[in-house]
Amino acid sequence: xxxxxxxxxxxxxxxxxxxxxxxxxxxxxxxxxxxxxxxxxxxxxxxxxxxxxxxxxxxxxxxxxxxxxxxxxxxxxxxxxxxxxxxxxxxxxxxxxxxxxxxxxxxxxxxxxxxxxxxxxxxxxxxxxxxxxxxxxxxxxxxxxxxxxxxxxxxxxxxxxxxxxxxxxxxxxxxxxxxxxxxxxxxxxxxxxxxxxxxxxxxxxxxxxxxxxxxxxxxxxxxxxxxxxxxxxxxxxxxxxxxxxxxxxxxxxxxxxxxxxxxxxxxxxxxxxxxxxxxxxxxxxxxxxxxxxxxxxxxxxxxxxxxxxxxxxxxxxxxxxxxxxxxxxxxxxxxxxxxxxxxxxxxxxxxxxxxxxxxxxxxxxxxxxxxxxxxxxxxxx
Amino acid sequence: xxxxxxxxxxxxxxxxxxxxxxxxxxxxxxxxxxxxxxxxxxxxxxxxxxxxxxxxxxxxxxxxxxxxxxxxxxxxxxxxxxxxxxxxxxxxxxxxxxxxxxxxxxxxxxxxxxxxxxxxxxxxxxxxxxxxxxxxxxxxxxxxxxxxxxxxxxxxxxxxxxxxxxxxxxxxxxxxxxxxxxxxxxxxxxxxxxxxxxxxxxxxxxxxxxxxxxxxxxxxxxxxxxxxxxxxx
Lengths: 381, 233
Description:
The structure holds two protein chains of two kinds.
Chain A: H1 2-28, E1 44-47, E2 63-68, E3 71-79, H2 87-99, E4 101-110, E5 130-134, E6 140-144, E7 161-163, E8 169-171, H3 193-207, E9 212-219, E10 228-231, H4 236-248, E11 254-257, H5 266-273, E12 277-284, H6 297-302, H7 306-313, H8 329-350, E13 357-359, H9 364-370
Parallel strand pairs in A: 3-4, 3-9, 9-12, 10-11
Antiparallel strand pairs in A: 1-2, 2-4, 4-13, 5-6, 7-8, 10-12
Chain B: H1 2-24, H2 31-34, E1 67-70, E2 81-86, H3 91-101, E3 107-108, E4 122-127, H4 131-137, H5 141-157, E5 161-166, H6 175-185, E6 190-194, H7 202-210, E7 214-217, H8 224-230
Parallel strand pairs in B: 2-3, 2-4, 4-5, 5-6, 6-7
Antiparallel strand pairs in B: 1-7
Helix pairs in contact in B: 5-6
């Protein structure tokens, strides 16, 4: 009996030890990634709860970085991390925060739009939780790879049926999308945590009179609109000009119109419910595809995956074709940064009395040739 | 006691087998994950987005030879020029961006009707179907066909030159897109297109048969030079 008791205690201690060790991994994902705020042109860092008071003190509250130009002009909102596992949009936003200087107009940058989504990964998908970059001074910049939904620890339970103000009806297996930031725009001040974030974004757009909104995403190769800018109908002229200019520079981007029934998505709902020109851009991230090989740093950062090269060679993909060179994080981040820049240029050309001009950013070739290791700033400095 | 042990072993074996079967089943990934539809707009494409089934034809353009005109030469168009769409794809917006880029003078109306021609001598029609574009315009595919038919008949009646532009490549091929293109081809005096969309020779064969010039470009940005020629720039 005594032997049995000791055995039981030993098992309980072993279980507790495993829980503590694995729990540390989970807790680590609640620690925010550091972003350098040494950019002299950074005017202000505020919280989204300023625009959605219900977010204050919650896991959904997130930083809004403001870079105000010397001259008046247009304003642009750059969203990264609407889906935290789509890391290139967030990294592009971080490079804007750390490098950009607004000559005219104002940049508002939210690098982790769904802050709660950074605190967990998708269960059973074998996703990496953190990616890092070793900088020339030996320091390491770490960024969490979360998942596309708000953490159920912060918003639970999911109801059986939901029909919020986005117009999107959610039921059965879709209902987890109630925690998807890009299904619940324009949000609800008194709604769920996710909706409060959505509301904060829409209210920021209204309050600050944001002229253009850019929502940076990534998609797996099977998605039909990879390297596409999806634009609200009012954003089509500026978006088309931006995409055409990118094409002239040799970047094979394309544009498509936001669907009328794309309820709750940023390019539809923010365009319909605010004055902003709402756009969303997707880059190719093979790590998000369900036919990818083993999860690895090479896949996440190099964007290299032989399965998708084979699928591409069989002609089975629409726009997410993958070559043996892969779709590296440097290239994907560059694509986002350039798409933002082209939108600013196109908007300024169309509105010469209200330009938004930004300097100080790395060039496309800088992203590719130097890599993010040499673009991200050291936090130690 | 012995029976109980055998029973336990059998249960464990069954459990192990069921775990193995489950682990090896490689079940279908949930749509919400495989489709980072995160950003997936609903109704991404209209019916008829399947690439045309046909043998591929010899390609004329390349990175070194970006523009090729067959069956004649590209000439300046008569002005004024009206730019419109039949099918409401986003390609008409890209063409609008290209024309702004070269400083062309034209009128842009994606849903122009016969009454909107305003004395145009040339009409450039970007073809290609988009359910989202049709939805944004608030019209059905049949209504779009009726509008296109009426517009093209007015062009014929008023001797307005019709130029067909097909800039969407293979993604603007398929049943519905081809129906819109066929409608315009019947009245076209010239074609400008991204060559990817002609991989089955549909447009070059038609141009040869009708003896009308067709300008093939390697990529959409390569339209700039031919458009300059067309606008006398």
